[in-house]
Structure formats: C-alpha cells, structure tokens
Specification:
Blueprint: E1 13-16, E2 25-32, E3 37-40, E4 45-50, E5 60-65, E6 68-69, E7 73-76, E8 83-84, E9 86-90, E10 96-100, E11 106-107
Antiparallel strand pairs: 1-2, 1-7, 2-3, 3-6, 4-5, 7-8, 9-10, 10-11
Length: 112
C-alpha cells in the first residue's frame, strides 16, 4: 500500500486478523496515514504511569489504545457482517466508491 493511502476511515468496524488481539472487532477511532496505522477501540490497550500535574493532580496509571498497523485489520461489511478486503471503484463521474471483494456490495462512508 502506498504511503498515506488508506481504504479504512474513522468510524469503520474492523476485525483484527493478526497479533495478540486476533479475531477482536472494534471501531476505528483514528487513522494515522503517515505511519499506516489505525487506533481501534478496545484493542492493543497500554498503560502509562503519569506524575501529578496541574491537569491531573492525582497522577496515576492511564490506560489508552495504542496504534496497530493497518495491514493487521480487515473491514467488516455492514450488510453481511463478514470481514472482507476492499476494492475502490471509480464511477464515470469521478466519484470513488469502496466495494467489498467477497460480495461486491458497496460500503458507505461513515459521515461523522
């Protein structure tokens, strides 16, 4: 995949296909295009210890989702609920549309 090109966008439902969190499904919170990574809700949870500060006077342990590589996730098709690869189809009027490879159904972009 070329640098910065992604067929997965924020708000998509994805399934992790490799790594410690294999077969876990979640929603994409952020897409980091420069590093080809995504942050998926509830996947790759990390803990960081923080000192007390003005913003967080208690300090303590902060839990957050760390990014994973975009090649380790597959988009879940909303109609069938199955994970599928994605193909882009360019309409004659220049509009790009995401198509599920397994079924051939178009996948709508989430407006959020």
């Amino acid at each position: 995949m070329a640098r910065g090109i992604s067929r997965i966008v924020r708000g998509d439902r994805v399934r992790v296909i490799r790594g410690n969190h294999r077969e876990v499904e979640g929603t994409v919170l952020r897409v980091l295009r420069k590093s080809n990574r995504v942050v998926v809700q509830g996947v790759n949870m990390r803990k960081r210890h923080s000192k007390p500060s003005q913003a967080n006077p208690e300090g303590g342990i902060i839990t957050f989702e760390a990014p994973i590589h975009i090649s380790n996730v597959m988009l879940i098709e909303p109609a069938s609920g199955e994970a599928s690869r994605i193909r882009l189809r360019v309409e004659p009027d220049g509009l790009k549309e995401r198509i599920a490879v397994k079924t051939g159904n178009p996948i709508p972009r989430n407006v959020s």
